[in-house]
Amino acid sequence: MTCPSLLTRRPVVGDAVDSMAARVRAEDTLGQFARFVLVGASTTLVYALFFAALESLGYLPAHVAATAVSTLLANEMHRRLTFHAGERVHWLTAQLEAGGVTVIGLLLTSASLAVLNSLAPDAGVATQVTLVVTVTGLVGLMRFIALRWLFRPRAASPA
Predict the structure, then answer these.
(1) pLDDT higher at 105 or 17
(2) Cα–Cα dist 120/117, whole Å
(3) Three-state DSSP class for residue 85
(4) How large is the average pLDDT for residues 5-19?
(5) Within a domain: 135
(6) How many Cα atoms within 13 Å fall on the side-chain side of residue 158?
(7) CB–CB of 109/132 below 8 Å?
(8) Residue 22 falls inside a structural domain
(9) What gap in Å lies between CA 126 and CA 132, rounded to an integer?
């Protein structure tokens, strides 16, 4: 006779990981948003590393350079991984469309850093990066909406 507790299979850790991986691979909005967040987190790390490495140049040059590098990387990763648009959307098109939203983000984060610098001139790199990450997170949500619904290719209308 089989033990009744063995008749009900409980999920194991591997099942949860498989389920999460399936969610990230899904082509629906939630799957795309999950990939968008993962790309955003990884390119934010790239931003933080560049910003910290260039911080001796001053907060603004470091911020602009780190933003440029991380944005180019993020735009390409979003084109290929988040939206699987590598075949549909040209590299330059993706850079220009997402870059426009990034300019807004660059202005907002630069202004935020300027305010922080005026209020707390001795603020450390961690504080500066935290501020930029917070503002960028809000701008990132705006970017996702723009890339997901505004800039997506339209289906050809019947003649």
Answers:
(1) 105
(2) 5
(3) coil
(4) 58
(5) yes
(6) 0
(7) yes
(8) no
(9) 10
Residues 6+ apart with CB under 8 A from 36: 78, 82, 140, 144, 147
Q: What token pair was written down for 119? A: 């209020």
Q: d(Cα 137, Cα 74) in Å, to the nearest integer?
A: 13
Encoded tokens for 58: 């001053």
Rounded to whole angstroms, the Cα distance separating 51 from 132 reads: 10
Q: Are 134 and 47 in contact (CB under 8 A)?
A: no
What type of residue is 90?
A: H
Residue 9 domain flag: no
Q: What is the extent of the structural domain holding 141?
A: 27-150
- 83 phi and psi angles, rounded to 5 deg: -105, 0
**pTM, rounded to two decimals:** 0.71
Total domains present in the chain? 1
Structure tokens at 143: 């970017």
Residue 15 banded pLDDT, cuts 50, 70, 90: low
Map residue 88 onto helix, strand or coil: coil
Residue 10 lies in a domain: no
Q: Quick one: tokens of 25? A: 């691979």
List all residues 6 or more positions away from 40 whose beta carbon is below 8 Å from its beta carbon: 74, 136, 137, 140
Enter the tokens of residue 91. 């590299």
Q: What is the DSSP string of 127-156?
A: HHHHHHHHHHHHHHHHHHHIIIIISSPPPP
